[in-house]
Specification:
The structure is a single chain. This protein is an alpha+beta fold. The chain has one domain: Nuclear Transport Factor 2, Chain: A. The chain is built from three helices and six strands; from the N terminus they run ααββαββββ. The chain has a six-stranded mixed beta sheet with strand order 2-1-6-5-4-3. About 20% of the residues are buried.
Length: about 120
């Protein structure tokens, strides 16, 4: 399994704003996540629900930038900046690192977010 190719494809989808589609395409059914707000999901369905709610609250995407990606074995890290105007008139500007652990089938089994 070429993890570098999979990471490039997934990061490309995220950078285009297709975050829910990326989760649906690349996450294993039992994938778990953890973010810097200490919100966790225990499976792919929960993550799709979480990301659907989040993306539905975005009024305008000001920008999504992928800065760097590193792959070592079955672990990848991707550095992004997300700039959103939300439906409640708030703004989100996140510079974050996304760490992913991949299984042998080319699926994400764990994803964690860190503020950069």
């Amino acid at each position: 399994m070429d993890i570098r190719k999979l990471v490039k494809e997934m990061d490309g989808m995220v950078a285009q704003g297709a975050i829910v589609d990326a989760v649906d395409r690349f996450f294993a059914e039992s994938a778990e996540t953890s973010d810097f707000n200490q919100v966790t999901t225990r499976n792919k369905g929960q993550m799709i629900e979480k990301m659907t709610g989040f993306t539905g609250a975005i009024a305008k995407v000001n920008g999504i930038s992928l800065h760097n990606t590193l792959v070592e074995g079955n672990v990848s890290t991707s550095e992004f900046t997300f700039d959103f105007h939300m439906n409640d008139n708030s703004s989100i500007y996140w510079h974050e690192i996304i760490k992913r652990v991949w299984n042998d089938e080319g699926e994400v089994i764990f994803e964690e977010y860190f503020k950069a």
